[in-house]
Write a structure and sequence with these properties.
- The chain has 286 residues and is α/β, with parallel strands linked by helices.
- It has a single domain, classed as 3-Layer(aba) Sandwich (Rossmann fold), CATH 3.40.50.
- The strands form two sheets. The protein has a seven-stranded parallel sheet, sandwiched between helices.
- Helix 1 packs across helix 10, helix 3 runs parallel beside helix 4 and helix 4 runs parallel beside helix 5.
- The two termini are 35 Å apart.
């Protein structure tokens, strides 16, 4: 029987590319997205290449939606081999100028969704004594960045949550956990991030505006001068995700490019893949 994989956020970008790539490499793919109206690109690819992909509705901010998708897969296959927590959204706005609704939204999409999807699959992986949870996080889960504090906070939370979970479920239940940490990605994720920053037509106002303008100018300069080094395509990140899924002993953490590796070096140099710390935590607490 094929290994199957549940992927969240598959309408565009890394999720779309991962769905196609995993199917081409012999996996049964359950590609999920909140809005099925955005499934046309994936449907076209399924038909074109005759891919073993089933599209399901799943909103990571809705636990009933998550449960329905997971139960649908269990009823059909009796198992879930891999969960790829990919759904996420960028957000750049000052803490002062973000609304309560926006703060809850960025946390729900980027952190709570990961927790609730993981919570939904863990009972089945535990019973089958096997499974793998892969999370597309970000260098922003290791390094805080200007005007991205709310997004980075949510991604830091994912990193801490998975690090703690890995200290006991991996050995006890043969469940592998990995965080895939890209830098910039040239996908609709970036467009979405910009779209979520506007405050009455501006990205920042008042005393924050000149700082934000300097930040944006720096981003544009880096994008122009070193686009190939900084920004990866969705398929490049998807290839890293596939390599993690095919690894018998996958790392807890892996960056997806040299730029991402260099960017996080001060945080990761002593323990690049997170293995040393997890082993230390296990020996200290268990």
């Amino acid at each position: 029987m094929k290994r199957n994989i549940l992927i969240t956020g598959t309408s565009t970008g890394v999720g779309l590319e991962s769905s196609i790539l995993f199917a081409k490499n012999g996996f049964k793919v359950y590609a999920t997205m909140r809005n099925l109206d955005k499934a046309e690109a994936l449907k076209d690819k399924i038909k074109e290449d005759n891919l073993d992909i089933e599209i399901l509705s799943l909103d990571v901010t809705n636990t009933s939606s998550i449960a329905l998708a997971v139960n649908t897969i269990i009823e059909k296959d009796g198992k879930i081999d891999i969960l790829l927590n990919n759904a996420g959204a960028g957000f750049a706005k000052t803490t002062e100028q973000a609304t309560e609704e926006e703060i809850k939204w960025v946390t729900d999409v980027n952190y709570h969704g990961v927790v609730f999807c993981t919570q939904a699959v863990l009972p089945f992986m535990r019973k089958q004594k096997s499974g793998q949870i892969i999370n597309v996080t970000s260098v922003g889960g290791l390094v805080g960045q200007p005007f991205n504090e709310l997004y980075c906070g949510a991604k830091f939370a994912v990193e801490g949550y998975m690090e703690a979970l890995a200290t006991y479920v991996c050995d006890a239940f043969n469940i592998k956990i990995s965080n895939v940490e890209p830098g910039g990605i040239s996908t609709e994720f970036m467009t979405s991030a910009i779209g979520k920053t506007a405050v009455e037509g501006k990205f920042a106002t008042g005393e924050y505006l000149p700082i934000f303008e300097k930040y944006m100018a720096g981003n544009q300069k880096r994008a122009t001068e070193s686009k190939e080094q900084v920004y990866q395509t969705g398929i490049e990140v998807a290839n890293v995700v596939l390599s993690v899924a095919q690894n018998e002993n996958p790392p807890l953490r892996i960056r997806t490019s040299k730029w991402a590796e260099d960017f996080c070096e001060l945080k990761t140099k002593s323990d690049p893949d997170g293995t040393k710390l997890v082993n230390q935590l296990k020996s200290s607490f268990l």
